[in-house]
């Protein structure tokens, strides 16, 4: 082919905002915290469903990992999923920020 595909993860703006939110919370946080921060960054409503679709894609690409916390009585027994920024995700975020700052 006349072009070479980059092996480095390329982030969409929405994915960059999600990873920035996790990074801002110390590298791990719940989907709810990410959702609220992304809405703040975008200054508009964001569908929680869109967020979960991107979380699945980010996990497949090993940019984030996740684990569940057991349910608590305060949450009505509902489990809580925590998302963690991986080293690869941190590097992708750094590269994406650098690319956007050059533009």
The number of E-state strands comes to: 3
The helix tally amounts to 4
Strand % is 5-15%
Detail the poorly predicted runs: none
Walk me through this protein's architecture.
The structure is a single chain. The protein is of the alpha+beta class. The protein has a single domain, classed as Arc Repressor Mutant, subunit A. The chain is built from four helices and three strands; from the N terminus they run αβααββα. A three-stranded antiparallel sheet has the order 1-3-2. Helix 1 crosses helix 2 and helix 1 crosses helix 4. The longest helix is centred in the last third of the chain and has 16 residues.
Q: Helices, strands, pairings?
A:
Blueprint lengths: L12 H12 L3 E3 H12 L5 H13 L3 E6 L10 E6 L1 H16 L1
Antiparallel strand pairs: 1-3, 2-3
Helix pairs in contact: 1-2, 1-4
Summarize this entry quickly.
It is built from 4 helices and 3 strands, in the order αβααββα. It has 103 residues and is of the alpha+beta class.
Give a quick set of tags describing it.
4 helices; alpha+beta; 51% helix; 3 strands; Arc Repressor Mutant, subunit A; 103 residues; globular; three-stranded antiparallel beta sheet
């Amino acid at each position: 082919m006349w072009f070479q595909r980059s092996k480095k993860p390329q982030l969409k703006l929405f994915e960059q905002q999600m990873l920035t939110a996790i990074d801002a919370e110390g590298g791990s946080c719940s989907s709810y915290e990410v959702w609220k921060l992304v809405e703040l960054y975008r200054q508009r409503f964001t569908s929680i469903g869109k967020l979960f679709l991107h979380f699945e894609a980010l996990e497949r690409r090993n940019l984030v990992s996740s684990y569940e916390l057991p349910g608590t009585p305060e949450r009505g027994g509902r489990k809580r999923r925590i998302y963690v920024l991986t080293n690869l995700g941190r590097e992708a975020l750094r590269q994406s920020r650098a690319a956007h700052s050059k533009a």
